[in-house]
Amino acid sequence: MSLWRKRPPVSAPLGSTPLGSASSESSLRESAALGEPVAVPGTSGHRPSLGALLDLVPHPLLALDRDGTLRHANETAQAQIGDALPALLRNPALGQALRTLLPGGTGQVDVQMDVPVRRTLRVSIRCEGAAGGAHGGSRRGLLLLSVQDRSELEAVERMRSDFIANASHELRTPLASLIGFIETLQGPAADDAPARIRFLSIMAGQATRMRRLIDNLLSLSRIQMHEHERPSSLVSVAAVARRVADAHEPLLAASGHSLSIDIAAGLPPVAADADQLSQVLTNFLDNAVKYAGRPDRPATIVLSVEPARAGIDPQADGVVLAVTDDGPGIAPQHVPRLTERFYRIEDGPGGKVGSGLGLAIVKHIVGRHGGRLTITSTEGQGARFAVWLPRAPVPATAAIGATRQR
Amino acid sequence: MPDAPRHIVSSYEQELNQLRALMARMGGLVENQTALAIQAIIDHNAESAQAAMEQDPEVDALEREVESRAIKLLALRAPMAQDLREIVSALKVTSDLERIGDYAANVAKRSLRLGPTGNDISLGGLRSMGRLVQEGLRLAIDALGQNDAEKALDVWRSDKAVDEIYTAMFRELVTYMMEDPRNIGACTHLLFIAKNLERIGDHATNIAERVHYSVTGAMLPASRPRGSASPETPTP
């Protein structure tokens, strides 16, 4: 890109600086490089600024001063990595590269972020200096950063190794029991018809467990792969909740628990992935059905959807989806760890065993939606699993949909 | 990002911006150091541990530089109102950041001594705690860079979860030690690591309190939301 070099050497018009807060004296001077119109061949009147040109590029681009102050993030950058920008720009490895780069030089830095969702950004840097120009100073010029989001690639890589580690570890137990039964059926119990029937039903149970585990692992991996992409389509949370509740009717009827649905009117719009949202509620309800019952009495489960109010976060505008039960509750030392993969409470009521992945899946879905998961419980009085989802930024969603066909 | 009104004396503005840039740099370093330290324990990665420890002198140097610049600003420019609060807060925040760096370096150092015995003991709790602490720290430093009182409040509220998980880990590790005295060495290191992470969380909360004060001029209540039997998030 040689656009900057075409600039007239001295009399750069300071004029408009549409590039945010140019604050220091030197940066005011330097921002001329960005605010300054660029000569477009064949046009005489309209001269777009460099910032406007960057906005046209459908790839995340950043323009920085030589001292590392952000001058402009193009529209794609704001849409895709806007929330990670401050953390990206203060990354030590990137800062080191930016400080040491000479005019005309290029560099590449991989920046990894662990929270709130795991992301890997590959930043290619190019230093556009006023090499040997009239102003001479080595601090003059621009840094152009092109950011490639490698999160998905990395996630695929990690998914493979995680899958092997988890699957081999978690599948070994049911597999060992399957093999044991098969050996028994081949040997001592070969002619024992009643034992065969009993063994086969246990084996079917173990096989189902293995299949469920694999399904859950796969779905967790899929979710993690796209965790860095916020969903942008608007979804009727109420409709999703009703659908999930309907689908659970047979299961509830079989378990004897009762479910009541409480959906408030006037919910703010929420951008979400409908399938993933229903998976969140499904997992909540499955857990409630599994763990909320006590030997002596069935539980009352409430599925509620309401606008966000005090409780999760008084300031946050959005929707809270919650599943509340009046079961035995969860001991406080377990609560913060429930979303870990394969974390199971040892003495679960009735010795019921889940895959240990349900809430991990929920956590990653909520992370992708920029929401928050809160688990509250008082032992002996029940538990409440709630997800807060932020209100959709309506105009922004519409604008993204209009300008980017994907 | 709130567009701050400009100052008439632009060199003053420039000095303030330099101070902010230094704070951001220090924040980034400390954040990275914490991430490396956590990686060092969870993945048994000696290189990460080494890298985390090597960053400590740079953090210390930055702390001294922030301090001297802040004092110079106070002495020469006699700032008022939000500027004054921001600069005084910077003085405090920088020592919080420096402490976080120290704790991270200590975690990294212990991860090296943990040795292979640590492998038998589940690191799940530490992983969750590490995540929570990293989230809080990132949010606090974001709030610091953007002068965002709302984000600061979020950090302040979420410290409770770290406390809870620390308590749970403490119990778990004590159980391991009672089960088998050979675990005592590793578990003691893990206990200190957990304690250090918990302290990092506390300092992140301190930073959040400072940011909230610097932006709004109002102090948050002295009693923080503590991990306790009542799990509902308190409203400030």
TrEMBL record, chain A:
UniProt keyword Transferase, yes or no: yes
Enzyme class of the recorded protein, top EC level: transferase
Ranges of biased composition (kind: Low complexity): 15-36
Residue intervals of the Histidine kinase domain: 166-393
Record keywords, A-Z: Kinase, Phosphoprotein, Transferase, Two-component regulatory system
Enzyme Commission number(s) of this protein: 2.7.13.3
InterPro entries the record matches: HATPase_C_sf, HATPase_dom, His_kinase_dom, HisK_dim/P_dom, HisK_dim/P_sf, Sensor_HK_Regulatory, Sig_transdc_His_kin-like_C
GO molecular function, one term: kinase activity
Reaction(s) this enzyme catalyzes, per UniProt: ATP + protein L-histidine = ADP + protein N-phospho-L-histidine
Gene3D superfamilies linked to this entry: 1.10.287.130, Histidine kinase-like ATPase, C-terminal domain
Chain spans, region Disordered: 1-44
Protein name: histidine kinase
TrEMBL record, chain B:
Entry keywords, A to Z: Cytoplasm, Phosphate transport, Transport
InterPro entries per the UniProt record, alphabetical: PhoU, PhoU-like_sf, PhoU_dom
Domain PhoU intervals: 24-110, 126-211
Coiled coil regions in record: none
Pfam families: PhoU
Superkingdom as given in the UniProt entry: Bacteria
Location in the cell: Cytoplasm
Purpose: Plays a role in the regulation of phosphate uptake.
UniProt similarity note: Belongs to the PhoU family.
Assembly description: Homodimer.
Protein name as catalogued: Phosphate-specific transport system accessory protein PhoU
Native species: Endosaccharibacter trunci
Gene: phoU
